[in-house]
Specification:
Radius of gyration: 23 Å
Order of helices and strands: EHEHEEHEHEEHHHEHHEEHHHEEEEEH
Distance between the termini: 61 Å
Low-confidence stretches: 238-244
Number of strands: 15
CATH class of the largest domain: Alpha Beta
Strand order of the largest sheet: 5-6-7-2-13-12
Structural class: alpha+beta
Helix content: 25-40%
Mean pLDDT: 85
CATH topology of the largest domain: Chloramphenicol Acetyltransferase
Shape: globular
CATH superfamily of the largest domain: Nonribosomal peptide synthetase, condensation domain
CATH architecture of the largest domain: 2-Layer Sandwich
Strand content: 15-25%
């Protein structure tokens, strides 16, 4: 039995009629390398059942504390049913990539059943090129980007022949406390909560203005400065970074505001070597090139819609803070930082240079923050108030001026061919989440075997033409490659 952290719980609390808390991936598979040239539902179920003990979150279900007095726990589902979680569907002819994306968008919009382990897998037949697709969605309360990649690694192999896996060791049945015991423990922790909160104040107060949205509140900057002085006096930490800390103010865009329950998805890939060529030519990082590509994509979309703001967009960038010891642990070990996306700069070379400089400045700004600051801030509210306050805050932020404009995330992946049930993995496209507060657009990138796989999830009503973004992405890459070639000549 494992209790969810305050940060894990926030991904549960944020769910509403328009917001889901799961993340996932769309894997495109070539079945010609599989035994018999195909992967069936039974094949996929058998493979996953053999390896469930290596992917513990897949067996976990929520155990709630009565009256919400404490954060819930993960327990092994005693009635686990692999047939419920692993399903199959088929596309109608012709089964092109847009039909596939539309079907995955519909599945993405559906919440997971909280009475069961919080994941689903769909084997998709009927793709027009003879390939298969596997769509996986897992609740963010159980995994983050890095642990999700680890989970994928458990199911994948490095050759068409599946590796031998040691069977699960049988053990005593899990003891699950009763409602009374859970309630008593919850009351005890509630009583200690004010004390723990007060003890955290000197550590967290210097960084209160780093929470997305709070920087707009009058007086928060002065409160953070006072907290920095208090932190140094009490030796609770180094205080905040006292260098120039410009306020990033997100401009209004057509894709910011309350989102609907409906989603659209577009996906595509770029050669990693092309990105590295630009990196070498301009002396920047791969991530700088990715961010600059996203800036170009959004600039062109905003120009198309006559909505280009004079100021840069503000991007929320998730960061992994996992230590080597936490590499294979479940749950969330993440932080976030805000960075400007220079959509206001017309020249592509200047846009890339500005992006690289902005990322360096953003990292310096967030370097003094404790690795656990997001978890610590999440723990400030008592468990009983967390759900109500999180949903109210999301709605409030979505109805007012935007806190951030979009989310851009870059997740490292395996750089060698992988196979699922013998079928070769051709691409693995992230399918992430959007919220009222973070905007109706999420661009997540995962590297795999010499390519960068982009998954773009949007609110259908706010960005109906999501496939245009993939077209702009390829144009942006060609533009930077041309400039890189000119610099190398």
């Amino acid at each position: 039995m494992r209790q969810l952290t305050p940060l894990d719980v926030q991904f549960l609390n944020a769910e509403s009629t328009t917001t889901t808390g799961h993340v996932g991936g769309l894997s495109i598979l070539d079945p010609s390398t599989a035994p018999g040239g195909d992967v069936t539902l039974d094949d996929l179920r058998a493979l996953m059942e053999q390896r469930l003990h290596l992917a513990k979150p897949l067996r976990w279900k929520l155990l709630r504390v009565p009256l919400g007095l404490d954060h819930p726990y993960w327990i092994n589902d005693p009635h686990f049913d692999i047939e419920y979680h692993v399903r199959e569907i088929a596309l109608p002819a012709p089964g092109d990539e847009r039909q596939l994306a539309e079907q995955i968008a519909r599945l993405t919009a559906r919440p997971l059943d909280r009475r069961r382990p919080l994941w689903e897998v769909y084997l998709v037949h009927g793709l027009q090129d003879g390939n298969l697709a596997v769509y996986t969605k897992v609740h963010h309360s159980a995994i983050d980007g890095v642990s999700g990649a680890e989970l994928l690694g458990v199911l994948m192999d490095v050759s068409p022949e599946p590796r031998a896996v040691e069977p699960a060791l049988s053990g005593p049945p899990q003891e699950v406390p009763g409602p009374l015991s859970l309630a008593v423990g919850g009351v005890r922790r509630m009583a200690m909560h004010p004390i723990k909160t007060v003890l955290k104040v000197p550590k967290l107060l210097p960084h209160v203005d780093e929470l997305p949205g709070l920087a707009r509140v009058p007086g928060v900057d002065l409160l953070a400065k006072a907290g920095s002085a208090l932190s140094r006096l009490t030796r609770q930490g180094p205080g905040r970074h006292e260098a120039e800390r410009p306020r990033l103010m997100a401009p209004d865009t057509p894709f910011n505001g309350p989102i609907s329950p409906h989603r659209r998805l577009a996906y595509g890939s770029l050669p990693l070597e092309d990105v590295k060529q630009v990196k070498r030519a301009f002396g920047v990082t791969v991530n700088d090139v990715v961010m600059a590509l996203c800036a170009t994509v959004m600039r062109r979309w905003l120009i198309d819609h006559d909505a280009l703001p004079a100021d840069p967009l503000v991007t929320l960038v998730p960061l992994s803070v996992r230590t080597p010891e936490q590499a294979k642990s479940a749950g969330n070990q993440i932080s976030v930082m805000l960075a400007p996306l220079p959509t206001h700069i017309a020249d592509p070379a200047a846009r890339l240079a500005h992006t690289a400089q902005s990322m360096v400045s953003a990292k310096k700004r967030y370097q003094p923050l404790p690795a656990s600051w997001l978890v610590d801030f999440s723990s400030m509210l008592p468990a009983a108030l967390g759900g109500l306050s999180a949903r109210a805050l999301m709605k409030f932020l979505g109805a007012t001026a935007p806190v951030v404009n979009l989310v851009v995330s870059n997740v490292p992946g395996a750089q060698l061919p992988l196979f699922l049930a013998g079928a070769r993995l051709l691409g693995n496209y992230p399918v992430s989440a959007i919220t009222d507060a973070s905007g109706g657009l999420n661009i997540t990138v995962m590297s795999y075997n010499g390519q960068l796989d982009f998954g773009i999830v949007v609110c259908r009503e706010l960005i109906p033409d999501v496939w245009n973004l993939i077209g702009y992405l390829h144009e942006a890459m060609a533009e930077l490659l041309k400039l890189a070639g000119e610099r190398e000549d």
